[in-house]
Amino acid sequence: MPTLYVVGTPIGNLEDTTLRALRVLGEVSLIAAEDTRTTRKLLSRYEINAPRLVSYNDRNRRQRTPQILKALEEGDVALVSEAGMPAISDPGAPLVAAAAEAGHEVVPIPGPSSVLTALAVSGLPVRSFRYLGFLPRLSGPRRRLLHDLASSEDTLVAFEAPHRLQKALADLLDVLGDRRVAICRELTKLHEEVFRGTTNEAIAHFSKPRGEFTIVVEGAEEMHGTPQVDVDIAAELLALRHEGKRAREAVRSVSERFSLPHREVYDAWLALPERS
Question: What's the start-to-end Cα distance of the chain, in Å?
Fold first, then answer.
């Protein structure tokens, strides 16, 4: 029975491909590509006579899936994303599931991954990590997600668009505190950049962000020397309250000063004794 090959392709530099991937792309009867223009560049670079090439993306996957399953009855098919491994933050997963359910063998052809690449060069401990995909577009859902992860010991890794980077970093700073981060821009491409520093420093550095970004944030347990929310922090909050500071301003001040998650400091504020 024909096979669906899930083929990893370069995330930028076309030299980052494997011999096995090139062989498979040249042997299958059909390539289902998230972006056919990107795939054609890869095929042209390695002088692969393109087999039948069709698009498979969020806009057409519902009607395209049965067509690809029909093609799988007649020959092998390769699934490729615009960059990296298919089915990771792209529409490939439904096709993989449908092919497996139809009884086809699904074979991975490992390749580059911007998630692992960013983690590897971040300089942050990666005993465990949590992949978030693209961060929510709006601040409210984004902040709620970060609040849920504030005490997580996992290193966090996420994608972000350039026009949302500044707002995302501001929410990271406000909710998680001034943690160590690695901001990876245009990985493996001509203008590749890896910034390592704190969230606050990253906000200043990327004043006019351009390109594609992968954000790596240290986990809660890696924040060496960070004090816990205790009586000292409560005293700081009390002092600010006596100065007339409102909750939002006081919590943000203490969170930034002690590099504490916003949620923990806010909980401490709520636990303060009532005014006498």
Answer: 78
Q: What is the pLDDT of residues 197-237, one digit of tens each?
A: 999 999 999 999 999 999 999 998 655 444 444 547 888 88
How far apart are the C-alpha atoms of 218 and 156, rounded to whole Å? 6
Top-tier CATH class for 3-112? alpha beta
Domain boundaries, the chain: 3-112, 115-222, 231-270
Q: What is the CATH architecture assignment of 115-222?
A: 2-Layer Sandwich (3.30)
According to DSSP, residue 10 is labeled -
Q: d(Cα 83, Cα 161) in Å, to the nearest integer? A: 15
Give 99-154 as a 3 state SS string: HHHCCCEEEEECCCCHHHHHHHHCCCCCCCEEEEEECCCCHHHHHHHHHHHCCCCC
